[in-house]
Amino acid sequence: MLNLTKFAAVLGLPLLAACASTAPVGGAPGVSVAEMSSLPVPGVGDFMPDAQYNVLRPLDVVQVEVFGVPELTRDVQIGATGSIDFPLIGTVPAMGRTPEELSLEIENRLRGTYVLDPDVTTRITERSQQLFTIGGEISSPGRYPIATPISLMEAVAIGGGMDDYASRDEVLVFRTVGDERYIGVYNIQGIQRGNYADPTIYPSDIVIVGDSPGRRRLDQILAITSALTTPLVLLERVAR
Q: What is the pLDDT of residues 105-118, one digit of tens each?
């Protein structure tokens, strides 16, 4: 079960200096600053990194072909628990394996008892849909399909780009790995300038673009003054 009270905030080193003059980072109850400069990569149980993208996951559909035995050739869907049910041999674990590894497992189980010298080929015919979520001050917030991992800049573009009130130095990425939830804090302008790498976004990640109160307040002031025919001087009280 996910421990929702256990969080870790992850910040890139270029961002730490920018936050030094603001409120302490990770000061909320249950949140602490993690000793790392990037978010951990999800595992197979959460999602697979690029190098393991060919591995099977729950709800994928695979075609299993047993050469010379057409009655055993069929399309099967991997169950929510990560296994398939195959004739004669029963339940076979599939999640986290490549199609080639699944073929070998089926061959070993069929060999000798049911098929003298089985030759099994497995291929993925349908991938289960994976989604990421983007919200906050973004033009088109929502959940979007993601076939392979993408960059944070690409995720923002998929969401239609930042709106007029977006805070480009407060873009959060929420990611659950195992029973830990991590929060990455990123500065889009810093990424655009090449200060640090554009982080990778994986399915199930949640991207939240922060709000710029100063920009919003300025627009409110301009909305007031645009209706006036004489100059207006405003006094904004600043807390000491």
A: 999 999 977 888 89
Eight-state DSSP code of residue 32: -
Tell me the C-alpha distance between 222 and 217, whole Å.
9
CA 151 to chain centre: 10
**CATH code of the domain made up of 50-126:** 3.30.1950.10
Amino acid letter at 228? L
C-alpha 162: how far from its chain's center?
A: 19
Query: Distance from CA of residue 215 to its chain's centroid?
Result: 29
Q: What is the rounded distance in angstroms from the CA atom of residue 215 to the CA atom of residue 195?
A: 24
Give start-end residues of each CATH 3.30.1950.10 domain in the chain. Answer: 50-126
Task: Extract the tokens encoding 220.
Answer: 């409110």
Comma-separated ranges of CATH 3.10.560.10 domains in the chain:
7-47+133-219
Superfamily covering domain 7-47+133-219: Outer membrane lipoprotein wza domain like (3.10.560.10)
Please give the model's pTM, rounded to 2 decimal places: 0.60
Q: Which residues contact 160 (CB under 8 A, 6 or more apart)?
A: 138, 139, 140
Distance, CA of 206 to CA of 209 (rounded, Å): 10
Query: Which tens digits make up the pLDDT trace of 46-80?
Result: 554 444 567 898 889 999 999 999 999 999 999 98
